[in-house]
Amino acid sequence: MNRHGSAPRPGTGRVWTPLLLATFLIVPAPATAQEAEQERAPDIELRVDGLACPFCAQGLEKKLMSLEGTERVTVLLDDSLVRVWTLPGSYVEDDPIEKAVKDAGFLLREIRRRPPS
Amino acid sequence: MRRAAVGSAAIAALLLAPVPVCAQFGRPLSPRALPEMAGARNLHEPVFGIGPHTTWRGGYGLEVGVESEGDERVFDVELLYGVTETLTLTVVLPFSRPLSDGSLGSVGLRAKWRLWSRFAPGLLDAVALVGGLTVPRSVAEGVEQGGPRLLAGATAGRESRRWYAFAGLRGTLATESGGVDPGDMLAADAAWGVRPVLSSYEAPDLVLLVELNARRRGASRTGPGETAKWNEVSLAPAFLFSYQNVMLKGGLGLVLHDSRGAPDESSDLKLLAAMEVHW
Question: Is B137 helix (H, G, I), strand (E, B) or coil?
Answer without folding.
Answer: coil
